[in-house]
């Protein structure tokens, strides 16, 4: 695991965007694994700007998102499909048909999760996986105690994650407690993993991920076993590292 510590969230976004740009130069038809949440927004803006400037193209890219809430239609403003379209896909030259988000509204989630795994494999596997990290060490919605070899499946969110994400929902609005997420085993098969962490609220999770034991109590710690994982943290998120 390589750890890069930078001064600001803006530098984290630029450094992450550089890695994606290099990936596209190596392989224009790359398969991306993508994340939602606050952390990657700046990186997406960087990539949008580089696409508009003509420095990179997503024309041949296929993408698979990490996770989706269960039982929110894709048109719901808090669904991760809506987030990806409005924050990224609508602003770049990717073919919308080549973007996939886990099946949060499938009638048969078990079959739909297996199909999502098959689709990733059918695309040749994920070349570059973008991740954020939860305050509890989750990656995707693989909450603490998740199986370290898990595949795409339905996961119940912890109280902490529900509370952390409540900021995105209006008061009284239904907030799902279930999600569909790629598993830790799915993430570990990506050829390159790029995890962004910014802000002091992530400092304890970053320490556990980088310096703690590999443990299901901190799912992100599994990345210590990944042959090509890069953690890009700002000073605040890295502040507990020894
Ligand atoms: C989002 C995801 C989550 C987030 C994590 C951090 O697709 O998989 O693991 O990366 O909850 O969220 P933010 O960036 O909002 O702090």
UniProtKB/TrEMBL annotation:
Alphabetic keyword roster: Allosteric enzyme, Carbohydrate metabolism, Hydrolase
PROSITE patterns: GLC_GALNAC_ISOMERASE
Residue(s) at site: Part of the allosteric site: 146, 153, 155-156
Residue ranges of domain Glucosamine/galactosamine-6-phosphate isomerase in the record: 11-225
GO MF annotation, one: identical protein binding
Regulation of its activity: Allosterically activated by N-acetylglucosamine 6-phosphate (GlcNAc6P).
Domain of life of the source: Bacteria
Family to which this protein belongs: Belongs to the glucosamine/galactosamine-6-phosphate isomerase family. NagB subfamily.
Name assigned to this protein: Glucosamine-6-phosphate deaminase
Lineage: Bacteria, Pseudomonadati, Pseudomonadota, Gammaproteobacteria, Cellvibrionales
